[in-house]
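quick one, 260 residues, struct below
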Amino acid sequence: MIDFKSKEKYDFQDLLRVMDILRGEGGCPWDREQTHESIRKNFIEEVYEACEAIDLKDNTLLCEELGDVLLQVVYHADIAEDEGAFTMADVCNGVTRKMVQRHPHIFGDAVASTSSEVLDVWEDVKRKEKGQETYADTIRAVARSLPALAYAQKVQKKAAKAGFDWPDVSGAFDKLSEETDELKRAMNGDGDKTEELGDLLFAAVNIARFLDIDAEEALERASKKFVRRFIAMEEASDRDLRTMSLAELEALWEQVKHTV
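---
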């Protein structure tokens, strides 16, 4: 066996070999027990941590987190190989083939000189690859495991390509007002509150789409802003927040919101 502890630098092949050892006969009991389902959550968490490193503009952390994401890819591929489904080589072959096929303006005769044209070419090739003949096919193909806001925005974009859309953002704002009124009625017993709240959020996502804003990112930024201001509000107070009136809390909020 290779003395991995003595190596100064490791490469991709080393990573594959280490995974084989960990999940092989006599390897790590925990690693050998894992399945696609048991480490699914880990995969999601690692991707989010890589995104956090990007947001922080921390290249050292990003390098580490990308390694963790790569480990998850290798892990799933190794599990699949044990099950006789596919190998890491199949994964590399598939994604490389996909990149070549979806860039016919680079590897073929198609023409695309702008980013917008490139995306159109990409979507056209993708539809042909997946045999998507109708707009309904493209909507059904949107991954349901996406976060709800991202799923809603992607579904709306697919529907808009079929012409099912308002001519401008004013229609989306009118719909938002309509859904707000329906939620208010549901709160008074006329309708399903959960359903109407969902419709309201869906309408808000439509506005984000018209404004070319990522709804998921917008809510994330708003949530982080709230956290910063709440922390600043508590730090600016010499009292327990629970002992303060709502008017006092709002005054304190107004005090810190212009500085944080």
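The CA atoms of residues 139 and 155 lie 6 Å apart.
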